[in-house]
Amino acid sequence: MNIDAPLLPDTGEPGFGIYVHWPFCAAKCPYCDFNSHVRHQPVDQPRFAAAFQSEMGWMRQMSGPKTVTSIFLGGGTPSLMEPATVAAVLESISRHWHVPEGIEITMEANPSSVEAERFRGYRAAGVNRVSLGVQALNDADLKFLGRLHDVADALKAIRLAREIFPRMSFDLIYARPRQTVDAWEAELKEAISYAVDHLSLYQLTIEEGTPFYGLHKAGKLLVPDGDQSADLYEATQETTARYGLPAYEVSNHARPGAESRHNLTYWRYGDYAGIGPGAHGRLTRGSQKIATATERRPEAWLDLVGRQGHGMIDQEELGRDEQADELLLMGLRLTEGVDLARWQQLSGRDPDPRREQILLEHGFIERLGNSRLRCTPKGMLILDAVVADLAC
Ligand SMILES: C[S@@+](CC[C@H](N)C(=O)[O-])C[C@H]1O[C@@H](n2cnc3c(N)ncnc32)[C@H](O)[C@@H]1O
Ligand code: SF4
């Protein structure tokens, strides 16, 4: 593989992605409900690499021969993987599918688990884009979020990532308790000054089952209300657009051309193979789209792979209506909107003209010529309601 091959351009097609889940973290953040686990004994990485490879064989049988358009190593904390593990995973993917030079290969990394040597190892293995979980640019909020890094570590990781990888993004979480629009705008402008061409900006969500959920329910953690969140969201859209990083999706911002190819595949409702504990996938077999899900618990997943060659516990054939709903749910997150012909083909009908008219009149959606439908910035604020209205 030529790791220096220039990035292939975005064709506008949904594409075919490979997602590999590394389910371990050094500590569990109190807001996070991702499938991530803390282990106090060293993880047997070669065993995991072999199990990933085995599961890929199964997914390859389901998907048939395909050309991969992006690879994403997510977590958990994939930067806890040894570079040799990452190299083995990428090699396995190339053995199962066609992997052209110049596709996007992203890895998530935590600023606290970053060492220059490891970063160089990931780069040598073929990773060409890194996504750093910075989360905040002040130490008090990083502590509140339960992060293991401070601002100095984050800046060091950003510097290193910029030096080593051709492409780099980082995540911030906003709408934190007592965060004002002014404070957030100042932090965001600072973030933009460190950014290359992509930022992911998530509003803090209180997820059921997390420590934050318990605190929130007990009235000990107050987050911005609906109006305050909307103000913060609007400030985010304005500031990023003003500095050349407009939103291309609800929470994702990029200079035109620097969008994450892998995430575009999800939102354009393309296929992806989800490999590893708790990974979800969407694979097309003939005219059928199949939703896949694997066992979430890492050791149970390993056992299952040992016994049956894969850790899949759920395979559901999606009906045309379900696919049409999913296409809408994902596509309306994008500023490019949804391809109506594809939606009509799946659902077998046009959008209900009366409902569409009401949404148009209220300024929640707009047509882009005859072929696409998208949410307006106002509609993005009530995205779920818009989708629900158009879907039924
Ligand atoms: C699965 S995490 C993986 C990244 C990496 N482990 C890290 O935390 O640095 C992906 C991103 O989701 C975001 N995230 C996770 N839980 C969230 C929540 N409850 N509210 C908002 N954003 C959240 C964080 O910004 C995080 O960087
Ligand atoms: S936010 Fe990232 S580091 Fe924190 S528990 Fe979730 S996956 Fe792990």
Automatic annotation (TrEMBL):
Pfam families, sorted: HemN_C (PF06969), Radical_SAM (PF04055)
Q: Family assignment? A: Belongs to the anaerobic coproporphyrinogen-III oxidase family. HemW subfamily.
User: Per the UniProt entry, what species is this protein from, by scientific name?
Assistant: Pseudorhizobium endolithicum
Source domain of life: Bacteria
**Main subcellular location of this protein, as a coarse class:** cytoplasm
Which UniProt keywords are given for this protein, alphabetically ordered?
Answer: 4Fe-4S, Chaperone, Cytoplasm, Heme, Iron, Iron-sulfur, Metal-binding, S-adenosyl-L-methionine
Describe the location of the Radical SAM core domain by residue ranges: 10-246
Under the heading SUPFAM superfamilies, the entry gives:
Radical SAM enzymes (SSF102114)
Q: What InterPro entries does this protein's entry cite?
A: Coproporphyrinogen-III_oxidase, Elp3/MiaA/NifB-like_rSAM, HemN_C, HemW-like, rSAM, rSAM_sf
Q: Report the protein's function.
A: Probably acts as a heme chaperone, transferring heme to an unknown acceptor. Binds one molecule of heme per monomer, possibly covalently. Binds 1 [4Fe-4S] cluster. The cluster is coordinated with 3 cysteines and an exchangeable S-adenosyl-L-methionine.
Tell me where in or outside the cell this protein is found: Cytoplasm
Protein's UniProt name: Heme chaperone HemW
